[in-house]
């Protein structure tokens, strides 16, 4: 079976999957809260610190702060603003700060021993740089102290159906990061069809990424509940799903978690956790 036929088969299987509970205690249907909540409680009780969950999980009793990447990616961000970002992340206990590569070393120094990670972006915001450029950026980011890498998928290659290139591009960053940093793949979902969201999620999983992420926040749309749920359904519980772009309040953040997000990228993190 050639690659196009394989992808078509996977897409058809996912889109034709059940959208309602198929029976008592089904633990894979993604939409039945009764079938999932107790299982998740058991997993957490056995020591898990983060659980990727499908939509309509049921009541969420979580510390949202530990699921938020406190984000400042605007090009005009100053050193003073980055320092403040780090101070806020420590104060509120956010998962990480997400900054442009030039600020990684500063954040690493400010966040040492705080428990807050340093995240940066690669190939940002277009994803259209060469694979070699992304690898070089990743190498430098890790040298400067990055714990997490958010790379932008090559949207043009994806839409050209050059799936081999897309997977190699992701895999090159993942292999460069190695055990020193996890990789989240930004799909820029506002530019993609559902089929392309599914394919790029599958490619990210095959290439060894730790997360798939909705958006850069620099294009025409951000995270939607439907996109988060679809991405979660494709990657299952093996990968994280990061909802980024347009999450501005507590209600929106909880809706994203209920839809399957295990991480939230937001510049409004303080508003979310202080509501």
Number of helices: 11
Task: Tell me the total number of β-strands.
Answer: 8
**What is the string of helix and strand elements?**
HHEHEHEHEHHEHEHEHEH
Query: How many domains, in number, for the residues?
Result: 1
Named at the architecture level, the CATH assignment is Alpha-Beta Barrel
Rg, Å, rounded: 18 Å
Largest sheet: 8 strands, parallel, barrel
Q: What is the percentage of strand-forming residues?
A: 5-15%
**How far apart are the first and last residues' alpha carbons, in Å?**
52 Å
Sequence-ordered SSE layout with sheet pairings:
Elements: H1 3-15, H2 33-45, E1 68-72, H3 79-92, E2 96-99, H4 104-111, E3 117-122, H5 131-143, E4 148-152, H6 155-159, H7 163-177, E5 182-186, H8 194-206, E6 211-213, H9 225-235, E7 240-244, H10 250-259, E8 263-266, H11 269-274
Parallel strand pairs: 1-2, 1-8, 2-3, 3-4, 4-5, 5-6, 6-7, 7-8
Verbal overview:
This protein is an alpha/beta fold. The chain has one domain: Aldolase class I (TIM Barrel). The chain is 44% helix and 13% strand. The chain has 11 helices and 8 strands. The protein has helices at 3-15, 33-45, 79-92, 104-111, 131-143, 155-159, 163-177, 194-206, 225-235, 250-259, 269-274; strands spanning 68-72, 96-99, 117-122, 148-152, 182-186, 211-213, 240-244, 263-266. An 8-stranded parallel β-barrel has the order 1-2-3-4-5-6-7-8, surrounded by 7 helices. Helix 10 (250-259) links the parallel strand 7 (240-244) and strand 8 (263-266). Helix 8 (194-206) packs across helix 9. Mean pLDDT is 84; it is low at 17-62.
């Amino acid at each position: 079976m050639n690659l196009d036929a394989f992808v078509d088969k996977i897409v058809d299987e996912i889109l034709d999957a059940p959208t309602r509970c198929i029976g008592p205690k089904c633990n894979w249907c993604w939409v039945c809260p009764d079938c999932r909540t107790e299982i998740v409680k058991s997993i957490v009780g056995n020591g898990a610190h983060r659980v990727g969950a499908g939509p309509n999980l049921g009541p969420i009793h979580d510390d949202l702060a530990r699921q938020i990447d406190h984000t400042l990616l605007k090009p005009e961000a100053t050193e003073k603003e980055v320092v403040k970002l780090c101070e806020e992340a420590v104060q509120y206990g956010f998962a990480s700060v997400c900054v442009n590569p030039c600020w990684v070393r500063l954040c690493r120094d400010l966040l040492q021993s705080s428990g807050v990670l340093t995240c940066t972006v690669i190939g940002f915001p277009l994803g259209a740089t060469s694979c070699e450029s992304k690898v070089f950026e990743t190498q430098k980011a890790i040298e400067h102290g990055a714990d997490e890498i958010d790379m932008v998928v090559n949207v043009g290659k994806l839409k050209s159906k050059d799936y081999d290139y897309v997977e190699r591009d992701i895999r090159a960053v993942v292999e460069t990061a190695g055990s020193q940093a996890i990789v989240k793949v930004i799909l820029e979902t506002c530019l993609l069809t559902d089929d392309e969201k599914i394919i790029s999620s599958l490619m990210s999983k095959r290439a060894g990424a730790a997360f798939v992420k909705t958006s850069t926040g620099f294009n025409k749309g951000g995270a939607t509940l439907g996109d988060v749920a679809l991405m979660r359904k494709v990657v299952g519980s093996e990968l994280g799903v990061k909802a980024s772009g347009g999450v501005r309040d507590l209600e929106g953040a909880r809706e994203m978690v209920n839809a399957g997000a295990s991480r939230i990228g937001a510049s409004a993190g303080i508003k979310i956790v202080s509501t």
